[in-house]
Amino acid sequence: MRILELIFSFQAGSKAGGILRFSADLGKALMQRGFEIHLGALFDFGSTVEKEKVVELKNQGLDVFCAALWNKRFPHFSFYQAIKALWSWQSCNKAHIVHSHSEFSDIAALVLKLHPTRPFIIRTVHYGFHKEWRRKPWRRMVFTNFLYPLLFDLEIGVSQTITSRLNSRFLSNVLKRSALCIYNAIDLERFRNQVNRDSKRESLNIPPDVPLVGTVGRLTEQKGYFYLIEAIPLVLKENPDVHFLIVGDGELSENLKQLAASRGITHRTIFAGARPDVEEILPCLDLFVSSSLWEGLPTVILESMAANIPIVATDIPGTRELIRDGHNGWLVPPRDAYALARAILEALKNKHLCEIFARRSSEVVLQFSIDSIAMQYERLFLSLLNSQSTSIIFPKG
Fold it and tell me: Has domain 2-185+369-386 been given CATH number 3.40.50.150?
């Protein structure tokens, strides 16, 4: 069976983040199960990190490609070029299933549904559908609330919260169609290798013996990094030895650096940019912090759990399905820099509790192995292929 996994871009830590890591891990796991997997991105942004990621994935045996070059001056034309290239790709390769993972690739999948080869189209929603097209609410009304439940063969939520919200849409109820919940997952084997903490810290210009608090993610509004930056001076006031590491890139990169400079914390805050070696960086941390304002089921928290790193995170849907406050981590209200700072300080003062929380998280994350999730997708794909209709309806209940 030929599957096209469709994402926005290969810009790890910037435009793609956890979606890229999940789709790549899922693709590799499905290949081991005998599927022919192609991982396609709508756009090539021409960044060095992006090129390195493409080479890495190709070396791992994945067939990867970018549909079109991104032109910032002409975004609509870029999207048209991507659609045109995908249409040609489908004519040559005839994927049985097109599996989309992002807003724009969802639209591309809808177009491919019209292709003469008539592939099944499914989409996995990695963030709450009420957050789709946040800046274009009319698109959410047209696509998310009307066209998607009507035309997609199946929709999948990566958390119970997302799935419930998808199923609460008016048209989903009228058509008696239900989204399925298949959790996000990671390749746990990536975190089995030993990492030389001192050597890795040295490469990041971080002393080996200082407390290191880190975060990984796209530098966008969603991740709430302005609140983390505001929390850092509060932490340093009580513990001036703490260093902070921010891994990722994005549209707010310069704004966040300027804010850090204005708060006088640049001597303790490192912006490492997008990195391909997250599985080596996480074990170097003493504490992982997620300041997100909204999430689906955050891959980076799963990765921190697999790396045995204690976690402070915001108390939001998705994250709440992974972290229980006072059981395997600390949860604080979103948009509250003071509460975030207090939790960071509490965690750094309680090493024994950190060890207990990290151990409990490492047990929880076993439920989110990419192998077990790939098995669910395998059964789903086979059921689609074996069906007699190109419009699969999954009744509620």
Answer: no
